[in-house]
Amino acid sequence: MRKIDKIMLLVLFVALFGRLGERILFGAEGETVRNPLIVRAALDAPQQAIGESLSDSIIEPSPPKANSRYTGSAFALSRDGHWATATHVTDGCKRLDLLQETSGGSFRRVRVDGWRALKDKDVAIMDSAQGEPGLVLAATLAQANDRGFFFGYPKGKASAGFAVHLGRSRMVRQNGRQRIKEISDEWAVYEMLPGKKIALGGNSGGPMLNAQGEVVGVVSAGSDRRGRVNTSIVPTLQPLLRFSKPEQRPTQPLTRDNYVAYGQQLRRTGLVSKVDCRT
User: Fold this and answer.
1) Which one of 139, 150, 211, 257 has the fewest CB atoms closer than 10 angstroms to its CB?
2) CA separation (Å) from 46 to 40, 43, 111?
3) What is the mean pLDDT of residues 137-150?
């Protein structure tokens, strides 16, 4: 066999194996995911029972430095000027602004007038004079093997991500002597676009959507190396309902073929915005 033939066979083998591996791990659209590493959670168990069966993931956030600027993400709850983000995005901030992307790719600044955190949860509510149509908050927990779609501004750059739900985990935030435990959903990140590397810093506070475009969690933590992202669980979001006036849904279910375009739509209309924190 000629050397060129061997090379062509090798290329064909790699392409076929890569596609087969993707289907085995993640399934085609509409199929059940068959990744043997995925944890199937006891979805009918009460929240307390779920928490008792989980191991702790220790998160030690670095305290914000004085006279610095940090970025995160947020999403609209209503036209009344209510927004949701992660509590740690607001920690130590003397001033917060929303940077809303325009159709031309520039940003307009919207001053945040006030913010408050849910007790012992990494979810916060921000208020501004300007609001946008609210995203729909999901009523049911994410289930093992569900597809998830998250949007935000990692490292200040617009991005869209696709993930698969692994199950529940328990985040333990260590702030000095204080330990705050919170049950979270854990997701395996499959891709983030644009780019070839997973970069999660700055996604905190952005929404994780299910295939119906409903918010099933607020992005709270992640590991670039492990390709994991943690979000708040649906029961944690219930206090947001009193501020929510949902209007925004996708016209068709979200898939790997259309979620990037939908994320751009959310950002370009200001429903998902960048958070600018000044300490």
Assistant:
1) 257
2) 15, 8, 40
3) 95
Is residue 208 within 8 Å of residue 236, measured between CB atoms? no
Report how far residue 204's alpha carbon sits from residue 156's, in angstroms, rounded to the nearest whole number: 11
Q: Tell me the pairing of strands 147-152 and 272-278.
A: unpaired
Q: Please say whether the beta carbons of 22 and 164 come within 8 A.
A: no
Residue 133 in tokens: 């149509």
pLDDT digits (tens, 9 = 90+) for 119-141: 889 999 999 999 999 999 999 99
β strands within the chain, DSSP E:
56-59, 69-76, 82-85, 95-101, 107-117, 124-128, 134-135, 147-152, 159-175, 178-193, 207-209, 215-223, 228-232, 246-248, 272-278
Tokens encoding 84: 């949701």
Q: How many CB atoms lie within 10 A of CB 129?
A: 10
Query: What are the pLDDT digits (tens) for 41-63?
Result: 332 333 443 343 455 555 555 66
Predicted TM-score of the model (pTM): 0.78
Q: Measured in whole angstroms, how far is the alpha carbon of residue 43 from the centre of its chain? A: 21
Rg (CA), the chain: 20
Environment class of 189 (CB within 10 Å of its CB; exposed 0-12, middle 13-18, buried 19+) = buried
Contacts of 259 (CB under 8 A, 6+ apart): 149, 160, 162
